[in-house]
Amino acid sequence: MSTPDPDTLPTSADPTGPCPRCGRVSSFSQAGSLPTRTAFHAVLGDHVPIERAVMLVCQGCREGSLVIEARDGVDAQFVPLLWWPTPGTRALDPAIPAAIGAAVSEGARCLSVLAPHAGVAMLRTALALIVKDKGSEAASNKNTLHAAIKQMVDDGALWESFGDWATHIRQLGNAGAHQEAFGPVSMDEANDLFALVQQLLEFLYVQPERVARARAQRTAVASPPE
Q1: What residue numbers bound the domain in which 184 lies?
Q2: Which of 13, 22, 23, 24 has its CA at 20 to 30 Å from residue 91's CA atom?
Q3: Euclidean distance between the first and final Cα of the chain, in Å?
Q4: Bridge partners of residue 23, in order along the sequence
Q5: pTM of the entire structure?
């Protein structure tokens, strides 16, 4: 068994990591596996699995998830191909606009099948939609996403550090769409970018909505109906 890594999705070799169901970092028990492809093993004189579906049960939410694993040959190690349900696509906070949530979810689906270039390109799309939604008229009128992000920082809509985040999302998203010019994007880079986008959504949408709800509830308590 490989060394546990809580930052990676769970597999049969490393049954730890973020749960595709509840999103929390957890440990998992294996509830069974089903071969989906086999190949003949000359030494064993029989067919052995080269692709399988493994059921993993989260020790936190107690719900099951599937990971599809495969190997290049009968003596190779199994490696993960995809997970179900798609990690990162659980219900987003209702404060996040539907179009932005859809782009983020599509990016997450790309990452779940180990497609980092498509994933970061969709995360860049999400960023462009965020700029359109949260940016001033001056930001919206900019000819490039780079200029629009800078305008949002100048307007105070983004703290300078968050502007750096947005710039990184834009640059890596460009690499995903234009690999021939910017070079390949690794899965580690793509996963880090996904976490960054989630933090940006938390800052721009989720936390302000929570504060607004809390204030409304406090106002209602302080001013009960007569």
Answers
A1: 98-208
A2: 13
A3: 66
A4: none
A5: 0.65
- Do residues 111 and 119 touch, judged by C-beta distance below 8 A? yes
Are 33 and 78 in contact by the 8 Å Cβ rule? The answer is no
Q: Tell me which amino acid residue 210 is.
A: R
183 CB-near residues (< 8 Å, 6+ apart): 175
Residue the block writes with tokens 């099948």: 113
8 A C-beta contact, residue 42 and residue 25 = no
In terms of C-beta density within 10 A (0-12 exposed, 13-18 middle, 19 or more buried), how is residue 176 classed?
buried
* Shared domain check, 193 and 133: yes
Query: Letter for the amino acid at 117?
Result: H
95-128 pLDDT, tens digit per residue, is: 899 999 999 988 988 887 788 889 989 988 998 8
pLDDT tens for 137-177 read 898 888 888 888 888 888 888 777 777 877 888 888 777 77
| Degrees, nearest 5: CA angle 82-71-53 | 45
With respect to residue 213, please indicate whether it lies within any of the assigned structural domains: no
Beta bridge partners, 17, equal 26
- The answer to whether residues 174 and 77 belong to one domain is no
